[in-house]
Amino acid sequence: MILVAERTSAMWRGIPRVRRVLSLILVAACLCPAFSSNPPQTAAPSVQVPILVYHRFGAVAANDMTVTMSAFRSQMEQLVEGGYTVISLERLIGYFMGNAAAPPSCCVVITADDGHRSIYTDMAPLVKKYGIPVTLFVYPSAISNAAWAMTWDQLKELTTTGLFDIQSHTFWHPNFQREQQRLEPAAYERFVAWQLRQSRTILERKLLTRVDMIAWPFGIYDDWLLNQAQQAGYVAGFSLKRLPASGHAQLMALPRYLVTDSERGLAFERLLACRSRT
User: Fewer Cβ within 10 Å of end Cβ, the chain: N or C?
Assistant: First the structure.
């Protein structure tokens, strides 16, 4: 090692001074980022997007889950007049997963849970008028069975518009907290697996569509449930927390705003407010 060092030193002394200086600069450029022609990129802005969730529509707001058509029409007009872009939930998730370009700075996502027939009779005509994408989270046990729910034919018709994407809300909308208290651990695990997988299986078979997102019934979830959903093939899940969704959040429990009939005018504007921050 000493011999190599001595030979290296001798060779270095034999190189003209100008060439030695140039060599040092080249070495520094390789080792120090400050000399690089490709400086490190700054972090991209953290896009925050409000995801809205509706349940049912009617002439009168009988409860917090019902939005009158006058309110819904007013809200859609605010989106158009305010310059907001309604993007699909699929596009937003694609961005969070690194598979799609960043959405516009002022955008919003619209979803609706349960599969109430007013989605077909009242919401759909306005969705078609404005040409906006909507994701429906439905639970198959109600479709064509419950008096208040849509039929499979109606759901199929909505999917043919290219505006409605159908995703899972479990098979029969259970309260997982209650079921966990009621069932033995092994039985609860089987119950959860069945709720998650049966919903996907039936929706995909009936509608010939890909189902890989889930809205948690009542907004209830825990870390174990999130893990089970991933194992069942879901890539994203959604709660009912009143916060904008961002890529920094847990992808299996992204927050959504439950929209009520009272959210009109300034109240609706505050909920939407453009959210693109570094």
Answer: N
Q: For the segment 50-66, what is each residue's pLDDT rounded down to a tens digit?
A: 999 999 999 999 888 99
Whole-angstrom distance, CA of residue 224 vs CA of residue 59: 40
d(CA 134, CA 4): 71
Integer Cα distance of 5 and 25 in angstroms: 22
Residue with tokens 């120090």: 32
- The whole-model pTM stands at 0.82
* Shared-domain flag, residues 166 and 255: yes
pLDDT at 273: 77
Considering the domain boundaries, does residue 252 fall inside one? yes
Cα(128)–Cα(132) distance, integer angstroms: 7
Domain count within the chain: 2
Distance separating alpha carbons of residues 104 and 197, to the nearest angstrom: 34
Nearest-angstrom CA–CA distance, 223 and 239: 13
Domain boundaries, position 125: 46-277
The verdict on residue 41 lying in a domain is no
* 149 and 227 fall within a common domain: yes
Residues 82 and 51 in one domain: yes
